[in-house]
Automatic annotation (TrEMBL):
One of its GO terms (cellular component) is Z disc. Residues 1-26 are annotated as: Disordered. This is Calponin-homology (CH) domain-containing protein. One of its GO terms (molecular function) is actin binding. It is found in: Cytoplasm, Cytoskeleton; Cytoplasm, Myofibril, Sarcomere, Z line. It holds the Pfam family CH. InterPro entries: CH_dom, CH_dom_sf, Parvin. Belongs to the parvin family. One of its GO terms (biological process) is establishment or maintenance of cell polarity regulating cell shape. Keywords: Actin-binding, Cell adhesion, Cytoplasm, Cytoskeleton, Repeat. Residues 55-162, 222-329 form the Calponin-homology (CH) domain.
Length: 332
């Protein structure tokens, strides 16, 4: 390296140190001084790492990945260190999508890792883009262990594939954006929203008449609830059962299963579900089984997740029952 280049680097290093608006605890990396003109680097502000909701989000995502990849004997402990080379992301995408990607199994070289990431991200983007997800990730950001980019990607996959997890809502972090303009490094602190509400994130996929009703006519909610209670009781009364609270009485899945049997006119064998479920898992099993019965009856797969119904999410429960009502309201 010649003396002029060293001098330039030294000057840029001084500029970096003297850059205004640099958040406390944030270090300018030596490679930042080598940024191309107008190029930028984004990193998580250190204070955001201690954000409890962010930590909770990381734990939920790690547990989810480990649950999905249990058969592959892959254990993820740290998203930055375990996801950057594309191996875990490849296995996760293949498991979720049921698609085998044409990539080398093990890649040690940086070029090989980036090629693998390129293939994985192309497949992901092809799947997600039509549903309104913007790519907040790239080969370079993932490979450089940018935690925010990795989390954005995992949240998008979890929502798209309706993962059986409850993502913490309204998780935001601060990121430091380092940009080079006219040879000088500039930094800014930017807030990034990683999750909004489950309903808003799922809403990227499809909004239906029910969403519109709740958005524009919340006063009609009680009318809808009354109609649904009348509808379900018309059928459940045949078994001497009665519903007064929609969100709580369907949460364990039992009434949903019995209702499907009545609507489709068949007896559901008791060994297929838990008649007195005690654990969260047993309740989720019941609701998921009821969803299967609905699909067997020709209905679309419910937009709600079984976990949301079990968690007493009123909107999710109403959506499931409203779907039944519109399909079976004329059934005797």
């Amino acid at each position: 390296m010649d003396s002029d280049t060293l001098s330039d680097l030294h000057e840029e290093g001084k500029n970096a140190i003297n850059t205004p608006m640099l958040p406390t605890g944030t270090e300018i990396h030596p490679e930042d001084t080598l940024l191309e003109e107008n190029a930028e680097r984004i990193m998580l502000d250190p204070t955001s790492r201690d954000n409890l909701k962010f930590k909770d989000l990381l734990k939920v995502l790690i547990d989810w990945i480990n649950s999905e990849l249990e058969e592959d004997r892959i254990i993820v402990k740290d998203l930055e260190e375990d996801c950057y080379d594309g191996q875990v992301l490849q296995k996760l995408f293949e498991k979720l999508s049921g698609r085998k990607l044409n990539v080398a199994e093990v890649t040690q070289s940086e070029i090989g890792q980036k090629q693998k990431l390129q293939t994985v991200l192309e497949a992901v983007n092809e799947l997600l883009r039509p549903h309104g997800w913007t790519s907040e990730w790239s080969v370079d950001s993932i490979h450089s262990k940018n935690l925010v980019a990795i989390v954005y990607l995992l949240v998008a996959l979890a929502m798209h594939f309706l993962a059986p997890i409850r993502l913490p809502e309204h998780v935001s972090v601060q990121v430091v954006v380092v940009k080079k303009r006219e040879g000088i490094l500039q930094t800014a602190l930017v807030t990034k929203e990683l999750t909004s509400t489950t309903e808003m994130m799922l809403g990227r996929f499809e909004r239906d008449a029910f969403d519109t009703l709740l958005d524009h006519a919340p006063d009609k909610l009680n009318v809808v609830k009354t109609s649904l209670i009348t509808f379900v009781n018309k059928h459940l009364n045949k078994l001497n059962l009665e519903v007064t609270e929609l969100e709580s009485q369907f949460a364990d899945g039992v009434y949903l299963i019995l209702l499907m049997g009545l609507l489709e006119d068949y007896f559901v064998p008791l060994f297929n579900f838990f008649l007195t479920p005690e654990s969260f898992e047993q309740k989720v099993h019941n609701v998921a089984f009821a969803f299967e019965l609905m699909q067997d009856g020709g209905l679309k797969k419910p937009k709600a997740r079984p976990e949301d119904v079990v968690n007493l999410n009123l909107k999710s429960t109403l959506r499931v029952l409203y779907n039944l009502f519109t399909n079976y309201k004329n059934s005797e």
